[in-house]
Write a structure and sequence with these properties.
The protein has one domain (about 20-265): Rossmann fold. It is built from 8 helices and 7 strands; from the N terminus they run H-E-H-E-H-E-H-E-H-E-H-E-H-H-E. The protein has helices spanning about 15-20, 35-45, 55-70, 85-100, 120-145, 170-195, 215-220, 235-245; strands at about 25-30, 50-55, 75-80, 105, 150-155, 195-200, 255-260. It has a 7-stranded parallel sheet with strand order 3-2-1-4-5-6-7, sandwiched between helices. Helix 6 links the parallel strand 5 and strand 6 (about 195-200). Helix 5 (about 120-145) runs parallel beside helix 6 (about 170-195). Residues about 1-10 have low confidence and may be disordered.
Amino acid sequence: MTTTADTTAQDDLSPDALFRLDGRVAVVTGASSGLGVAFARAFAAAGARVAVAARRPELLDRTVAGIERDGGEAIAVEADVSDPGQCRAAVDVACDRLGGVDILVNNAGVGTAVPATRETPEEFRAVVDVNLCGAYWMAQACGRVMPAGSSIINVSSVLALTTAALPQAAYTASKAGLLGLTRDLAQQWGPRKGIRVNAIAPGFFETEMTRQYSPDYIDTVIKPRLLLGRFGAPAEIAGVGVWLASPAAGFVTGQTVAVDGGMSIT
């Protein structure tokens, strides 16, 4: 049961009131390619000013140019999220140039496919350092400056919920760890800071990572488990990100949303 005193929902049910992000600042990591670009462009289209961060500055400039062509505002910040100092510096740049941080999309990620008996400590740690530790360092840096009502979105993977017949111990462990991190930060920062923390578990989308898979693997292992019979389109996951950051999801925290064409239930 809710009352006027204990609900934060607004009376305005128009799409603009529910899904617009005007006046907000979003930081999107891993925004040099793939889903990171889609998230950044969708957030800008919804009215946010966007700081795009990644290790490849020349590709970040391309992302910024695309947002500006669409009439949005964005800046590029070169950063390696596995370095806590670079995470803090990226947040400082967003605060200095855009006025603060209200939204974080932890999208930066790497993956490998190495059999568990042959994976070296260095290979395993390299994946975890970016996918899990990097998300934590960015969340930590943003959490220190975010106002109440802010939103953190951790981009996990369907492989945190199921398997896909590849030897991906480091990737799977790091993405499953993100779900635990999501729940913990939600319970820490919801009551004290008013910050919502959620995760998205993407299935198979056309990205640099999935383009490395062989046609035989896709046809025999992946496609039979996709209930919708196809890979996802970038807009179909970017829209979920906008929803999670928007007033429409103001009562959603600590949750994982699978955007996977049904793969996690097959």
